[in-house]
Amino acid sequence: MARILQLDEAIAELVHDGDSIALEGFTHLIPVAAGHEIIRQGRRDLTLIRMTPDIVYDQLIGAGCARKLVFSWGGNPGVGSLHRFRDAIQNSWPVPLEIEEHSHAGMANRYAAGASGLPFAVLRGYRGTDLPAQTDTIKPIECPFTGEQLTAVPALNPDVGIIHAQQADRAGNVQMWGITGVQKETVLASKRSLVTVEEIVDELTPRPGAVVLPQWVVTAVAEVPGGASPSYAQGYYERDNAYYQQWDPIGRDREKFANWLETEVQRERSGR
């Protein structure tokens, strides 16, 4: 049975220095509040995993939480680059950052393999690209039935998978709807999992197309209203486009970023 915890309690218990962690969500339901709590608790040497790292990963990298990023695309959606990410790669500030780059299809298949208990996934998508020459976790493999040359990628099994959803009930069953990415696979593939939710309700109301994660696959649930902002949570609030635009000048400048860490992230602690 999933345990209902406060966000700070859940991060303190589940996320440790040196862990591999995946904070997943595609455009929608990004677990931003959980990322900020990881920053507040000063976690270090993390391997950050995410198909599409955006500003919350820029913030984690700039705060010195990460030693490695496993990803398939990175940027500030609709605005431009992630400048804390760039600074870490180009100047090793605040610490050096190792990268492991895949395609979207490769990452999705890695999560699916991890969720299925398989050691690797096989796909065609890397043929004709230079990624196999750059990434050690992409290997050629021959189909035993046809002889076709394919590519294999290892399963992803993060130490901790973190997602955001709209609702959970008091037993820890989780329901999410709207645009979903690999959140289900992330939870199923991870050794430990945390789901932050907009609200905890007495009973989940069935919704067309919703994803339900049963209590026995979730380690902990934390009620965090607004926990996906500035991304959006369908049925609760819209995307804060201005925040993404405002992040660009903050992320570009080390001093402005340091001030953001001291003011905005710490202010969230007192406001939750």
TrEMBL record:
Recorded GO MF terms: transferase activity
Keyword S-adenosyl-L-methionine (UniProt): no
InterPro entries: CoA_trans_fam_I, NagB/RpiA_transferase-like
Gene3D superfamilies documented for this protein: 3.30.30.40, Glutaconate Coenzyme A-transferase
A Pfam family hit: CoA_trans
Keyword tags: Transferase
SUPFAM superfamilies, alphabetized: NagB/RpiA/CoA transferase-like (SSF100950)
Keyword Transferase assigned: yes
Family: Belongs to the 3-oxoacid CoA-transferase subunit B family.
Protein name: CoA transferase subunit A
Organism: Saccharopolyspora oryzae
